[in-house]
Design goal:
Chain lengths: 72, 469
């Protein structure tokens, strides 16, 4: 990331944060995201962050660790 | 037999007729090929027709019968597979332009091969959402699949061709895949039956993945008996799919006649009520009343279940497609490209949090399933949306169909539970369906309930009137 410190938690994430997130991860992955794609990717990043917000405030203290292989 | 007579025959009826000598396998295959040629331009369900293979396979069945051999259980039944399944000699498109340049598959996917061993005759590959990532099948490269009950509307997705080919009477049996609802959504919107089995029950070997920890493969058909017959033919361990359970087959066809006596059936309320239209609620109530199901159950935290499912699917799909996103992002359907690009950027901690939540939710539902055997829920929030629609209205909110027609199916693939999508008869209205959900490895319970709904006249799958003119 281009900013100091950890990734901001989604509730406080701004559009600028998402722009930096996109640029940093595109560099990490070697992705070329052209101007026409950028708004759609940013919109989807916002949706993903919203989903994580729902999980982030849930108490998972009692949850078991993830099994190595999921079984129903 | 005329192509019109063929259109409404089910898989087991065709196999019985071939066995008795009422018609030959070649007659049946020619009817299927004739209907596909005459009608598929209207529905766009097929991407490849394997006529030569079909005629050769049906000739072999007729020759076996002529020399007094024992016919396999589904001898002469035409079927088609979503183009996510490998078919020997055919390029596995996965709904994508990118995959069109790949070499043809060298061998059939396990489930295609098992149906062929059971006597089924493959007639082609079916259109789908690009990389199975969406619920509408408005494919930018291969065109939208049109719903045979109203060609201005979507067939659902991602196995859109698998639902439409049945509803149009082109074939009596299809294969689809379901990561978050991709068998159940098109089954419901096209008015046919679909089975998403327990995670690990049916092999996915030779099936292009989307999100490996959620991917399932299964059959669609126009009756519970046909669905069961196909399911029975495909069961069994497969070492080439790491997720496929080392379990012997547990055939269900013979259990359908057992009825629902002794099964504890409940209706899912809460989220499933709140996220269903009045029509979808009425459809569920109709089915529940027919079964005498008065009990309700509340599954906790479904909003978070959807969130976790969304993150896991995105993470796994994004990683899967990363190399093509680097090299040729503009060859993706724009609707899936932007989702997949964003998906490559999900932090690992988010993915692992979602997987931990999944473990928590599994324990909650296991407890619920101690006291009920079967749960009923709507399959989709609304009926088929118009092709090109960017939103549907539900209880005062707007949702995009591509991502939200599966908002009621997510929670059960999240846990890998077996679910049968059952079409509920609605005279003069677009199809809607319900989900019949059972405990892990109890497909028999869900299929018995589906059969009971048919016997009570509540569940019915009919070839669309427009396809019979």
């Amino acid at each position: 990331m281009t900013r100091e410190g950890p990734l901001p938690s989604p509730p406080t994430m701004t559009q600028d944060d998402r722009e930096r997130w996109l640029d940093a991860m595109a560099a990490v992955h070697g992705l070329v995201i052209d101007a026409a794609q950028r708004p759609g990717v940013l919109l989807n990043l916002a949706r993903l962050a919203e989903q994580y917000t729902l999980l982030a405030d849930f108490d998972l203290e009692s949850a078991k660790s993830m099994p190595a292989r999921f079984e129903p | 037999m005329s192509p019109r007579d063929y259109a409404t025959l089910g898989a087991t009826a065709i196999a019985d007729g071939v066995r008795r000598g009422d018609f030959t396998a070649r007659d049946v295959t020619e009817c299927a090929l004739s209907r596909i040629e005459a009608l598929d331009a209207r529905y766009n369900a097929f991407t490849t027709v394997t006529a030569a293979r079909a005629l050769s396979a049906s000739a072999a069945i007729d020759a076996l019968r002529a020399r007094g051999g024992v016919l396999p259980p589904l001898a002469g039944v035409p079927f088609a597979a979503k183009n996510l399944f490998d078919i020997e000699g055919v390029t596995t498109l996965a709904g994508a332009k990118i995959e069109a340049l790949r070499a043809p598959a060298a061998v059939d996917a396990t489930l295609v091969a098992r149906l062929a061993t059971a006597g089924c005759v493959l007639v082609g590959a079916l259109n789908m959402e690009e990389y199975a990532y969406g619920f509408v099948t408005e494919n930018a490269h291969y065109g939208a699949v049109r719903n045979p009950h109203d060609v201005s509307r979507v067939a659902g997705g991602s196995s859109g061709g698998s639902g439409a080919a049945l509803a149009a009477g082109l074939v009596p049996l299809t294969l689809g895949t379901d990561t978050n609802g991709s068998i159940r959504v098109p089954a419901a919107l096209c008015g046919v039956f679909g089975l998403k089995p327990t995670y690990g029950r049916l092999s996915r070997s030779g099936v292009f993945p989307l999100a490996a920890s959620f991917d399932h493969a299964g059959p669609l058909a126009r009756s519970a008996a046909d669905l069961s017959a196909a399911y029975d033919a495909m069961q069994g361990p497969d070492a080439s799919d790491i997720a496929c359970a080392q379990r012997d087959s547990q055939p269900v066809s013979a259990t359908l006649a057992d009825g629902i006596g002794g099964l504890r059936i409940a209706v899912a309320d809460g989220y499933f009520h709140d996220h269903a239209s009045d029509d979808a609620r009425a459809t569920l109530r109709n089915a529940a009343d027919a079964l005498g199901a008065t009990r309700t159950v509340t599954l906790a935290e479904i909003g978070r279940v959807r969130a976790a499912g969304y993150l896991i699917t995105a993470s796994e799909a994004g990683e899967l497609h990363l190399s093509n996103l680097r090299a040729r992002a503009n060859d993706f359907d724009p609707a899936s490209r932007d989702r997949l690009l964003a998906a490559t950027m999900v932090p690992a901690a988010w993915y692992l949090t979602a997987q931990r939540f999944r473990a928590w939710f599994r324990e909650q539902v296991r407890e619920v399933l101690q006291s009920v055997d079967v749960i009923l829920a709507p399959a989709t929030p609304v009926a088929a949306t118009p092709i090109g629609a960017t939103a549907f209205e539900l209880n005062g909110h707007e949702y995009p169909p591509r991502t939200h027609l599966g908002m009621l199916t997510y929670p059960f693939s999240f846990l890998g539970l077996p679910v049968v999508a059952v079409p509920v008869a609605r005279r003069g209205k677009l199809p809607l369906g319900i989900q019949v959900i059972a405990a892990p490895w109890r497909e028999d319970h869900a299929l018995r309930v589906a059969r009971a709904l048919e016997q009570r006249g509540v569940a019915r799958s009919e070839v669309a009137a427009g396809a019979m003119r």
